[in-house]
Amino acid sequence: MLASLAFPPATSDSTIPAVLHLKTGQSFTGRNFGAPKSVFGETVFSTSITSYTESMTDPSYRGQILVFTTPLIGNYGVPVNSAPYDTQDVGVVLESSGIQCTGVVVSDLAEKFSHYKAIESLASWCTRHNVPGITGVDTRAVTRLLRDQGTTLGRLAVGDDASAPRPESHEYWDPSAENLVEQVSTRMPYTLNPQGDVRIAVLDFGTKANILRALVRRGASVTVLPWNFDFNAVRDQFDGLFLTNGPGDPKQCMEAAMNVRKTIQEWDKPVFGLCMGHQIIGLAAGLDAYRMTFGNRGHNQPVLALASSGSIKAGRVYVTSQNHQYALKLEDPFPAGWEPFFINCNDSSVEGIKSTSDSGKRVWGVQFHPESAGGPLDTIEMFSDYVTECRMVKAAQAASKPLLDAAFTAPPERIAVSATA
């Protein structure tokens, strides 16, 4: 604590040159911080004014060079990123164990930081995780370009590479051509809060820690599974299925979508998906997904509820946290048994779908992040709605089981038959 109050300097070498090259031809010069290396990636921007540590550790930013529109970044440093495994936490403070984005672009890197939980600067954190950054860039100008021409492939050139010729068009790496989910999903199943009163399976497409945190803090036992795990083989062991956020193109995960389609068709327990999970549910329902021009990334996205469900009331606008490049297409008519749940107030993109009341299913998907971290908490109670629904279905099935068992164990009804028959 004393070290952070003393405003320790950022451990960056401001003499190393750096250049951000965009595939569309523009270049922005600045100085390097963090790792002194060059990288390729997909250049995207976030309008978030806080929580840079949470954004940088969000697996949905895998393969991306993250541009912060807020001018000053790093002023409150970086905290210790470890926490207990219990009913309140899931092993980390931030959204994953390390930095997930490929590179960082900021206008003004804070050379000093001050926060009672901070232990290091943004620059030293990036150095430790081998992630390069560039400061001294007009990030508002970069943002306006990306808004006009859309998300653009880029290269962060550092050191000697900064004075080298810009890359040829064919040299730029497109992360969306790869299955990024495969890179960030857990390799082996694991369970959090095993003493929870309802068992929820989580398909991990690149989950943020706060999603898991939100579930365990509501008393659930959470078993995290790889993205392509055949949930249908073990579904009877669980009271609900949850699909997480993740990076890249949802069509890279059609294997998961087909598994989820079978689950929805044959299973009557609650299913909830966020971001990538919402898109997977949409593909399973028969909707199509498309690549947006520049996506929605930030903590200020307004969405309009088109239907009521639990704590969500139709006709109300909710402010949400988002991070996605792809969205579901709005189709008319919607697939049978499904209806739109939310729509974006800015660009009219689909922000949520749900099963209809007459479908007999309990399925919800939302494009935004109710758990935030960071961002507004307008929709945080959707987690309570979901866990409550899991408990209700579990209790109802437990109550009906004795009657079902009795029906199978009772002697068969005897029908009188004539002796001459």
Automatic annotation (TrEMBL):
PROSITE patterns from the UniProt entry: GATASE_TYPE_1
GO biological process, one term: L-arginine biosynthetic process
Signal sequence coordinates: none
Annotated ranges, domain Carbamoyl-phosphate synthase small subunit N-terminal: 16-157
One GO term describing the cellular component: cytoplasm
Catalytic activity of the protein: hydrogencarbonate + L-glutamine + 2 ATP + H2O = carbamoyl phosphate + L-glutamate + 2 ADP + phosphate + 2 H(+); L-glutamine + H2O = L-glutamate + NH4(+)
Keywords: Amino-acid biosynthesis, Arginine biosynthesis, ATP-binding, Glutamine amidotransferase, Ligase, Nucleotide-binding
Molecular function per GO: ATP binding; carbamoyl-phosphate synthase (glutamine-hydrolyzing) activity
Pathway given in the UniProt record: Amino-acid biosynthesis; L-arginine biosynthesis; carbamoyl phosphate from bicarbonate: step 1/1
InterPro entries with a match to the protein in the record: Anth_synth/Amidotransfase, CarbamoylP_synth_ssu, CarbamoylP_synth_ssu_N, CarbP_synth_ssu_N_sf, Class_I_gatase-like, CPSase_GATase1, GATASE
EC number of this enzyme: 6.3.5.5
Pfam families hit by this protein: CPSase_sm_chain (PF00988), GATase (PF00117)
Principal EC category: ligase
Highest taxon of source: Eukaryota
Stored NCBIfam families: CPSaseIIsmall (TIGR01368), PRK12838.1 (NF009475)
Family: Belongs to the CarA family.
Quaternary data: Heterodimer composed of 2 chains; the small (or glutamine) chain promotes the hydrolysis of glutamine to ammonia, which is used by the large (or ammonia) chain to synthesize carbamoyl phosphate.
HAMAP family, A to Z: CPSase_S_chain
Name used for this protein in its record: Carbamoyl phosphate synthase arginine-specific small chain
